[in-house]
Amino acid sequence: xxxxxxxxxxxxxxxxxxxxxxxxxxxxxxxxxxxxxxxxxxxxxxxxxxxxxxxxxxxxxxxxxxxxxxxxxxxxxxxxxxxxxxxxxxxxxxxxxxxxxxxxxxxxxxxxxxxxxxxxxxxxxxxxxxxxxxxxxxxxxxxxxxxxxxxx
Length: 152
Description:
The protein is an alpha+beta fold and 152 residues long. The protein folds into 2 domains: 2-87 and 130-151, no CATH class; 90-127, no CATH class. It contains 4 helices and 9 strands; from the N terminus they run ααββββββαβββα. It has helices spanning 2-7, 10-39, 105-111, 139-151; strands spanning 43-46, 50-56, 59-64, 68-71, 78-84, 89-93, 112-114, 120-122, 125-129. The strands form 4 sheets. A 3-stranded antiparallel sheet has the order 3-2-5, covered by helices on one side. A hairpin with a 5-residue loop joins β7 (112-114) and β8 (120-122). The two termini are 52 Å apart.
């Protein structure tokens, strides 16, 4: 192989060297382009009234509450779950919306209970709340579990 390079003219040696250099440069540009494209998935914009829960490999790392442009490691390292923290949430117990509508047995049984003096009471109530801590709200954990279950 060394003899082959010695027998080549200077022009051929230069062309071979340029071809190798261009091959390496093209490969480097492709790799950097792919890495930049992958890194672009780490940028996101957070709107006012929302919080982003950042999970790194499934473990809570931090919660971002400040609106604007942010960067986290791209998937699969970091996963972000956006939670609306200003919305008033509602949880109904014993009824679902219109009280006069026909109910199925499960909804009626949910509201019916027996007291200590053996009376039957139907108790219905609603709780309204806003999220104070986006991670503790549980939305992000449920979403991550759904993603894991769908991947399996």
